[in-house]
Every structure is written in structure tokens, then in C-alpha cells.
Amino acid sequence: MPPHPASDVGTVHSLAEVRARIAAAATAAGRAPESVALVAVSKQQPWDAIAPVLAAGQRVFGENRVQEAMARWRERRAGLELHLIGPLQTNKSREAVEFFDVIETVDRPRLAERLERDIQALGRAPRLYVQVNTGEEPQKAGVIPSEADAFVELCRARHGLVIEGLMCIPPAEEPAAPHFALLAKIARRNGLARLSMGMSGDFEIAIAHGATSVRVGSAVFGERPQAIPTAD
Ligand SMILES: *Cc1c(COP(=O)(O)O)cnc(C)c1O
Fold first, then answer.
1. Contact 190 CB / ligand 1 (< 6 Å)
2. CA pair distance 177, 19, nearest whole angstrom
3. Which of 7, 8, 148, 170 reaches 20 to 30 Å from 50, CA-CA?
4. Ligand 1 midpoint to CA 144 (Å)
5. Which atom of ligand 1 is nearest to the CA of 85?
6. Domains in the chain, ordered, with CATH?
7. Where is 138: in which H helix or E strand?
8. Model pLDDT for residues 73-103, shown as the tens digit of each residue
9. pLDDT of 3
10. Residue 37 C-alpha to ligand 1 middle, in angstroms?
11. What is the pLDDT of residues 116-135, one digit of tens each?
12. How far apart are CA 179 and CA 35, in angstroms?
């Protein structure tokens, strides 16, 4: 491999450091380091920040907007595992089913219905997670905890969707641990083995509570540039 330009070193170092911290947290929880996957959240990052992470071998990336993800990854799609971690509008369901390997934000009956239709039409089924709004925040996507069991059952029984796990984003201003514990409890009673939880600020806590994948952005790539609002 050619030597990295000096500006890349920090990013690669952060990837290695995040991987080491994931492994240490898994070991501390009595789990195998490979039992926790790193989803590197590349949303809003300039390509200069992403390229060295890709070059260092990271293959699993998270994006929160369908259009942005396609613009960034379409030409380099081979060999990658792409996760949609942002809210999915029903009118973008078809594109999302076509493009993503994992959709982590299934959260309402109308979307489940559309996903069923698009999966059948395209003959392609991304892995699916149900997003739970553990903090019951009005501005946040996700099914509320008291409706999670019924929604998982609706996805399975009515729409024939294979739900692989649950995902949550705890309220920013609260300790995350009780939210992670709640998500794990809902997953257990619904027979779901996968938990997508934990971000840059709290992924070690999430791993202690059973996270099987963590979605880490700024700790891998550096702070995101100021978000530009889009209509996506
Ligand atoms: C942006 C984002 C992340 C990553 O956040 P960081 O704090 O940068 O690690 C994780 N999950 C979701 C759903 C996000 O939107």
C-alpha cells in the first residue's frame, strides 16, 4: 500500500482505536470481539474523510438519507454492506430495498406494507430492523415500546417480513443505559437476536447491554461538517 498522506493518519488511527475499544468492551462483557459489528456512519462526511477508512478495510457503512447514500456509494457499491439508519419515507421504499443491505428503521404499518410490496416486486430482501423510540420522544422516529411487540408481529404475520433485530437512538440528554436495557428486553421477548445500539458517545455502554452492532460516526471519521438540510 502507498503511504498515507499525513492528513489521513488521524482518521485511520481513529478507526483502529474504535475497533480496539469495541473489542475491549466485548471482552469485558464476556463476549467475543467478533460478536459486535462496527457500522461506520459516513453520513455528511467529505470523501477525504471516508477514503482512508475504506482503504483501511472497513466495509460496513451507515447512511441516514437514501439519496445521499446513493450519490456517495453507487459507483463503489461492490463488496460493501450498506445500512440505512435514518427515517425511510414510504415513497423511497423501493429505492431503499434496491440499494441497501440492511434497513434499520422500520417503524410503522404503512412502511411495512410498502416494504413487503417492494421486496416481492424486486425479488430482493434487505435485512430489517425495527426502530424503537425508547425515550418516546415526539420528534423521533420509531415505534413506542408499548407498541413494539404488536408491530413486530404485524411485520411478521401480516407482511411476511423477516425482522432481524431492533434499533434505538436514546434521548441525547439522558443516560443511555436504561434505554439499551429496555431495547434488549423487548428483543428477548420477541425472539430477536440482533441489537443495533450505541454511537460515538456511548457504544461501550451499548456493548455491555448486548449490542451486536454499533453505529459510530464522529469517533471514526471526525466531526461532521455542518449539516446541510435537504428535502430527502
Ligand atoms: C449520525 C448517527 C449515528 C452516528 O453518530 P455519532 O455520534 O457521530 O457516532 C448513529 N446512529 C444514527 C441513527 C445516526 O443518525
1. no
2. 21
3. 170
4. 20
5. 13
6. 6-221 (3.20.20.10)
7. none
8. 999 999 999 999 999 999 999 999 999 999 9
9. 46
10. 15
11. 999 999 999 999 999 999 99
12. 20
